[in-house]
Amino acid sequence: MKKFTVVALMVSALTFGSQAAFANETQGEGFDTLKDLVTKTSQTMQQQAPDTTFAKTMIAHYESSIEIAKLELQHGKDADARKFAESVITNQTKDIATLKAWLEKNPAAK
């Protein structure tokens, strides 16, 4: 279980880093902390297309989580952590498809 906790913490840390990179790419500003990311996302959602900001940010978040989960499957030994990684890949792949489909159906929100 200790390995599972470490993997979960790594997923969280790397996922938030990816969100910051996404935000940096789309908004032209860097983020030093998750709090900065959340604050900037909140401001963007109030000023621009909130639904699109949400969808794009969540896609980036899920894509990062999937990459980390794949690393767990390549290198991890703990059965619980590997099972969790598999569920992350399955569930978040579906969520990405849902969000991308929504973006396609709502071009005005882009």
From TrEMBL:
Segments forming domain DUF305: 39-103
A family per Pfam: DUF305
Highest rank taxon of the organism: Bacteria
Keywords: Signal
Coiled-coil intervals: none
Signal peptide coordinates: 1-23
Name of the protein in question: DUF305 domain-containing protein
